[in-house]
Design goal:
alpha/beta; Rossmann fold; 25% strand; binds S-adenosylmethionine
């Protein structure tokens, strides 16, 4: 049962449909929206980060896989990439955004299914009809949760003993252009106001409860990303989060200038701009 629905038609649709028990506060608030623009951004993000997903997953996934879970799958790009990389009998993507799940379901694949659900809720509420997973993947989600360790503990209920959990989260970003550096400062500040952490990738190893998981691998993958494509992604994000109530105290003129600067970098006026990116990675084994 959902408290309210979100019209998919317009870019201003930032309302996330949440079960009644979740609708009250900004705790667990997803800062970057789920409108059409956000979905477009996640498509570009998925293209840009596919090589790092593929390298990580290929190195750590056991074979064969019976059931792979993609926690907070957005419009399903990561789920489809995982299904292409890992031969799995069954792949399930879960997300709490109805527009994203609707999008994901528009491109069906025989072994891939999507469902609406809050991944902070226990297995019996979200996926009781699904078999326990032997692989779980999650990317760019824990950064949005004020209690990421609690989510990991909850996910133990989704997993079979010996199952592998694969997590990827941003550890650090350094832009060679001052506009990018400033953007990262502002987003880190806004996320902090929501009780979230932009550099979640640096904190992954501290999250798992040792009674539930063994840590098999913890590390950072470093690579360089094109500044124009990153600026484009950030600009799409900025268009959403500048309307966030907790961003109301930020300098509107500065945000407008930042928007113009990011647009210029995205338009390839900063052809030599790069982002040095570090992805935090954690591989867990369910006890
Ligand atoms: C930055 S997107 C990442 C999507 C995908 N994992 C990827 O890497 O492209 C974060 C996703 O987390 C989802 N999300 C945030 N909090 C959630 C929650 N409590 N339950 C389910 N999904 C959630 C959002 O709807 C959004 O799709």
């Amino acid at each position: 049962m959902f408290a309210w629905d979100c019209e998919v038609r317009a870019d201003r649709c930032d309302t996330v449909p949440l079960p009644d028990h979740d609708k009250t506060t900004t705790r667990g608030h997803y800062t970057f929206g789920d409108n059409r623009m956000a979905a477009r951004r996640l498509q570009r993000l998925a293209d840009l980060f596919r090589p790092s997903l593929e390298a990580f997953v290929s190195a750590h996934v056991p074979r064969p896989v019976a059931h792979l879970l993609d926690m907070a799958c957005g419009p399903g790009h990561t789920t489809r990439q995982l299904a292409a990389i890992v031969p799995a009998a069954r792949v399930t993507g879960i997300d709490h955004s109805r527009p994203f799940i609707n999008d994901a379901q528009r491109s069906p694949l025989p072994n891939v299914a999507f469902r609406l659900g809050d991944i902070r809720r226990p297995h019996r509420e979200v996926a009781a009809d699904l078999p326990p997973a032997d692989v779980l993947y999650s990317r760019f989600l824990l950064t949005h949760l004020p209690e990421p360790g609690d989510a990991l503990s909850t996910w133990a209920g989704y997993l079979a003993p010996g199952a592998v959990g694969l997590l990827q989260e941003t550890a650090a970003m350094a832009g060679s252009h001052p506009a990018l550096a400033r953007y990262y400062e502002l987003v880190a500040d806004l996320q902090q106001r929501h009780g979230q952490r932009l550099d979640m990738g640096r904190g992954l190893a501290a999250l798992p409860d040792p009674g539930l998981y063994d840590v098999r691998y913890s590390g950072e993958r470093r690579f360089v990303l094109p500044g124009d494509r990153m600026a484009e992604l950030h600009r799409l994000n900025l268009m959403t989060w500048r309307h966030d109530p907790l961003a109301a105290s930020l300098d509107r003129r500065e945000l407008a200038t930042l928007d113009v600067e990011l647009a210029a970098i995205a338009g390839n006026h900063g052809a030599d701009v790069v982002v040095e990116y570090s992805m935090g990675e954690l591989v867990l084994v369910r006890r």
